[in-house]
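Schema walkthrough. Field components (list of strings):
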Amino acid sequence: MGLTHIIDRRLNGKNKSAVNRERFLRRYRQHIKKAVSDAVGKRSITDIERGESISIPGKDLDEPTFRSGQGGVRETVNPGNKEFSTGDQVARPPDGEGGQGSGQGEASDSGEGIDEFVFQISQEEFLDFMFEDLELPNLVKKQLKDTTSFKYQRAGFSNQGNPAKINVVRSLQKAYGRRLALTGKKRESIKTLELKLMNLESSPEDYTKEIRALKLKIEEFKKRIKKIPWIDEFDLKFNQHIKIPLPSTSAVMFCLMDVSGSMSQMHKDIAKRFYILLYLFLKRNYKKIDVVFIRHHTSAKEVDEEEFFYSRETGGTIVSSALKLMNDIIKQRYPSSDWNIYAAQASDGDNWNDDSPLCSKLLSEDILPQVQYYAYIEITKLEHQSLWHEYESLNPDFPESFAIQNISDESEIYPVFRELFSRKVSHHE
Amino acid sequence: MSKQSDNNYISTGSEWSFELIEKYDEEIAKIAKEYKLDTYQNQIEIISSEQMLDAYSSVGMPLGYHHWSFGKQFLNSEQNYKRGQMGLAYEIVINSDPCIAYLMEENTMMMQALVVAHAAYGHNSFFKGNYLFKTWTDASAIIDYLLFAKNYISKCEERHGIDEVEKILDSCHALMNYGVDRYKRPAPISAEEESKRQKERELHMQQQVNELWRTIPVNPENECETSHARFPDEPQENLLYFIEKNAPLLEPWQREVIRIVRKIAQYFYPQRQTQVMNEGWATFWHYTIMNTLYDRKLVDEGFIMEFLTSHTAVVYQPPYDSKWFNGINPYTLGFSMYQDLRRMCESPTDEDKYWFPDIAGSDWLETLDFAMRNFKDESFILQYLSPKVIRDLKLFSIKDDDQVEHYQITGIHNENGYRYVREQLSLQYNLSMKEPNIQVWDVDLRGDRSLSLRHIPNQRDPLAGSTENVLKHVHRLWGFDVHLYSVDDNETIAEFHCPPLKTEEPEDQN
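Field assembly_structure (string):
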């Protein structure tokens, strides 16, 4: 036997099981999706960004093998006898499922297997499952096709370029290498000559002539080395950058909310979760997302998030004020040629009756043509009022980019969200 | 460093380092040599706990093909580990040459030394010496073979899709325990050979299958119905082998996948048959070696105390009525038996001389070596379980007959019971008693090509509820109807069919 090898494997990948784990998730997709969707319904949406413990009925992932069932004659040897003597009769434990009979230690030979199989999925996976079938309508529109911006990305080095892009380190490296290569022979010659010189000089005899000749030769070589340029044109290296088209990856999300007296904190909480869900969703599709909060009662105002959700107002409601403001902000800051615009409006449905037709007009003429998607959610258990009906009539004209839904309590947020953003099969196939 | 001169501790304190592991290994190797342990070359690998979890879930294969069931295993261990319900095994060792043993980085120095003694010298010498391992496994080829298998299966996945491959693997796994030759010596596996001949084999196998089925209609009328010759003419215990060679519809790559699962099952078969012996042997040697280290003052009090704590936990056997009871602890049983063998050699009592005349007073090293080499759990227990061990563990046997109202105690740890308890315990480790005896019985070559399996119950034990589900897998592999008959004394007492027979309800016109 040879010497023992001791190897440090800790730096080797630790995720050897990743593929197998992934296979498992793949196989039980449906189970996991259901569990995720249940979890989203139950859990507060504000803490959606964490993993989840998934549980699957054990019988669904059983790996069956031939086994013996209950019955027949079974004799087992067990340890730790205390009071038994040979020939004793022992009462059968009820149910035939007692601890002592089945000494084999095999897990559950009753056939049903472990009741629940529980495991963790990460936050990342949780969100993936949650958003799996969702796709924002018209997402395609602003993709690769009509890219308008570019970015520069490093792409190695090149021999040509403008002086501003000289890579000093690389260039000097190259020059140094070239000098080494070109002077090697000469330096070697100098070395041997110098050695000879030393010998001659230290020798007692007189070699003055030879010494002079040698010195000249050495001088000669040194001159020739000097002639080799310290840095040459072709030593120069330039950083190279290439221009790559940048898909338009910015989105702006408008949150519009009615904060008039009729909207309670409960309404706002529901709306908030809806916005968060939308935000999370956009975050997965766009690199950069701006959020604009517009609150309104009889007049509209752009506010920060805190004020948006938590300051109280009273008074009547004029929805069109918010739409007008949104339209202005788009014009000033978020031209639709550069931005993917999403909007979610939440309201309890209250509006000043004469205002509703105006809203409809603003939407159809100004806003909807510019946005990717506009979702209106009405949080109410009551009869719909004029705003709903006006919006409803708009729906057929903008089937791709406009949707309205009614939410009556918290547990409906996610289903409605799904509904609103569910993949439009017909659109894709 | 040390003030006293009469000790030469290798280390004090619990921090380990590579140099220290090396030093311990050197000393342990020295001791092992004195005890005449013959081992493969050792390869000790330090891994993190995450890597240990990984190693766990691939059933100890250092590299395995991908399958969801390993992922399930992984998630399960991970969950248990995180919840603290399970400590990680402190060692995993691979039956390969060189013999690979994993040490976890979280272990203390004592634990590392313990694992080195246990795995790198205990298990290692068992792998090298025990006749089952020598006959059935080829330690030098296994790593390469596993690599071949992994690559082959991922190639199949590329070509036929993950789902198709997964289906075949699912079915093979269901029959994995029925994919071993129990008596025949298989050809040694060599990865190089395997891949070289894999193509050739593909062709050949397909041809043979075709041959079998081609002869069917050609069969002349004269020797038909009456003498319906069974095929195969002898019942076959290796279901996977039979299917690989004879299933009519499988594609060559599917046959190769079956073969891979079969080969791996065969490789693990000796481990399943020698659990008590193997763990007992490794435990006996870590115990002996660690104590020798202490006797030679190579380790300090703290070290040996820590060791004893851990060792005691390993060999703890909860009594049958404890809530921790989960069957007989193989570490305890095996360790006690080897310990007792040594005791009988070194200080035999009259009882020992009566029961084990050949062993009492013999050379303990030789006796243990012989016992390690020539047995499997079943025969090892039958041969060596001594009255003392039966008494120490307070073993008793209990009979559960579903036709009798009460359980019956059939033997305990007394003069009348020793032999009986020993026989019963030996039976308990007989794999063919643990697993239902199911064999290939017949193939309807002329008719519907259906496959019939036969189950021969042992003491009337019926098949479990999972049987129907396993049959579905047999059916998937075979491609035609599959029947399973439980036959006790020529009388069919149960039958299973896949697809289920439709005879009962005659209304299938709708």
